[in-house]
Amino acid sequence: MLPKLAFAASLLLSICAGTGVEGRRRHGRSSEFLHYSAMSCRSYSASLDEFGGVGDGVTLNTLAFRAAIEYLGQFESMGGSQLYVPPGRWLTGSFNITSSHFTLFLHRDAVILASQDERDWPLIEPLPSYGRGRDAEGGRYASLIFGTNLTDIVITGDNGTINGQGDTWWRKFRGKELNFTRPYLIELMYSDKIQISNLTLLDSPSWNVHPVYSSNVIVQGITIIAPTNSPNTDGINPDSCTNTRIEDCYIVSGDDCVAVKSGWDEYGIAYGMPTKQLVIRRLTCISPTSAVIALGSEMSGGIEDVRAEDILAIDSESGVRIKTAIGRGGYVKDIYVRGMVMKTMKWAFWMTGNYGSHPDNNYDPNAYPMIQNINYRDMVADNVTMAGRLEGIPGDPFTGICISNVTISLTPVPKKLQWNCTDVAGISSGVVPQPCGQLVDQGQETLVTCQFPEESLSIDCIEVQMCSNRIKHW
Ligand SMILES: *[C@@H]1O[C@H](CO)[C@@H](O)[C@H](O)[C@H]1NC(C)=O
Ligand SMILES: *[C@@H]1O[C@H](CO)[C@@H](O)[C@H](O)[C@H]1NC(C)=O
Ligand SMILES: *[C@@H]1O[C@H](CO)[C@@H](O)[C@H](O)[C@H]1NC(C)=O
Ligand SMILES: *[C@@H]1O[C@H](CO)[C@@H](O)[C@H](O)[C@H]1NC(C)=O
Ligand SMILES: *[C@@H]1O[C@H](CO)[C@@H](O)[C@H](O)[C@H]1NC(C)=O
Ligand SMILES: *[C@@H]1O[C@H](CO)[C@@H](O)[C@H](O)[C@H]1NC(C)=O
Ligand SMILES: *[C@@H]1O[C@H](CO)[C@@H](O)[C@H](O)[C@H]1NC(C)=O
Ligand SMILES: *[C@@H]1O[C@H](CO)[C@@H](O)[C@H](O)[C@H]1NC(C)=O
């Protein structure tokens, strides 16, 4: 039974419902009801302005966020709580979500603005599966919104904005002025049941959304925008996560739109935590210097059972790209992609076995990755420079590659060699232009359809509820 509380109500729905805010006036003080869908609703709600927050774009609100979250933590086992961020520009340093069963909700006119002063960003340990920070040795700045060892966290809004104001970070990174790894916008670590939805993320200092060592993660309805020349502004990076669903996202950025990861060389091998059971659907991506979906390059814990469908790529370097190297170990297997439309691409298909990029010189030169059972089907691509550049590893071929029903039209000045395949093996069927001989054409009579699993993953069965909370205005 759900508790009957004056300020909260929830109703189970089998379909998703919209977000809305309805105004109400009562006893002279205004209040309104917030309606939105989430995987769980909360009994208690408070607004950032009740904790001294000032949304003028200038006042630093780090302490207000911390005070609000600490106060709301007392309701963790009493139905959970919600922090409402009202309209305004809320400048803040990094803050932590510290209790489970917690929702952060941004009004559509709320902007969380990240401080550009490094002193507002505490340093935290490197990830155990990476051994060091991605930009520099040693620690890393905590993400703007960080949480660890939590259950049931919702970060959502009526398309409210989180602006990382990354330009100063990018400049310092390019000028080699930073001693530590740049922060991400949202990172949740060792957590279960996460929903990040209906937000706009702008100008992250580095990666945007990073769930790591987590399970049951939904990322939905996120718009991510960063300049296409900004360094490492990856969109969504599920990293050593089980059961993740990324859908209805629009991403324009300077790096991969989605990068699936699981740790780096000897650290990732030792940690041994794969990313598996990942669904990506209805993604629109613009990434002129990177991939729409990258698998790796950090894949040392393994990547398996990834299902991507209904993807639109515009002006991107490559479609789905596998990136790995000797020393990574691990595997990329059981990858299924169908229904992809690509417009203006350098490479429709790209696999790179010699990506390099090692954390240090202690990687194991005998740690060969295993790349197997990779399925791509039902795709159309226009204005492509080169159809496929498939480079496996000498002595360690990438096998079980299947490409079917793919039509690629070329740019006015295409590469002479459209498919360059080394150390790969597999089959093809109904692919234009004709693939390399390593992808053995199954012939006109026997059109083969590459696999795509029909049974759904448990992340598709998470029920959504309609939540309703009264918001008071002060
Ligand atoms: C996001 O917003 C859309 C449109 O308002 C709504 O249909 C959907 O349920 C929302 N999803 C989540 C997870 O909040
Ligand atoms: C957030 O938590 C991390 C790890 O628990 C800690 O190192 C960091 O200082 C915390 N950040 C803040 C702003 O309290
Ligand atoms: C968080 O969870 C990890 C993995 O279960 C565990 O190793 C770590 O000690 C936990 N940290 C805290 C602060 O509870
Ligand atoms: C959210 O806001 C962004 C940026 O203003 C906009 O491009 C996008 O269309 C909006 N999304 C929705 C669902 O309204
Ligand atoms: C980086 O380290 C150098 C040498 O220790 C120091 O001079 C510099 O101020 C540091 N820079 C930052 C941004 O912390
Ligand atoms: C081939 O792919 C297109 C989408 O690009 C799809 O509409 C069509 O149904 C597919 N054909 C077969 C035989 O599956
Ligand atoms: C085709 O791709 C080239 C780059 O290879 C680009 O300059 C051109 O604008 C694209 N044409 C169209 C019609 O998109
Ligand atoms: C084909 O790929 C191999 C391996 O990467 C490379 O050495 C060779 O130069 C490529 N050939 C062409 C014509 O690009």
Automatic annotation (TrEMBL):
<protein>
    <submittedName>
        <fullName>Uncharacterized protein</fullName>
    </submittedName>
</protein>
